[in-house]
Amino acid sequence: MRQDSLESVVRDPCFLLNEGICNSNIDQTMLSILLFFHSASGASVVAIDNKIEQAMDLVKNHLMYAVREEVEILKEQIKELAEKNNQLERENNLLKNLASPEQLEKFQSRIPTDVTGSAV
């Protein structure tokens, strides 16, 4: 494999994934590293230390990309959960306002004592 054919893989962490060659970031990273080291068999061999450093940079780029993706997913989940929590709090307040004092008293008597301290 020619050295210049790996440039797009090294420059863009998503290249193999976008080209449909790999199904996941881990597959893509491993394939990129293998291709990268395989290219060292040509006439223009770079020192092994440089190859290792470049491979580590490649792994770092792939991991950072994967972490950013995961962070975005988690941010969206947090947003959805916060919205759901707000909706439930509004429903809870509405039900408290609509309930009679007798209903509230009956409800409070059913809640275990360790929960009542943190419930309201």
From TrEMBL:
One Pfam short name: TSC22
Stored Gene3D superfamilies: Single helix bin
Entry keyword Iron: no
Coiled coil feature spans: 64-98
Protein's UniProt keywords contain Coiled coil: yes
GO cellular component, one term: nucleus
SUPFAM superfamilies for this protein: Delta-sleep-inducing peptide immunoreactive peptide (SSF58026)
Family: Belongs to the TSC-22/Dip/Bun family.
Protein name: TSC22 domain family protein 3
Organism field: Myripristis murdjan
Gene name linked to the record: TSC22D3
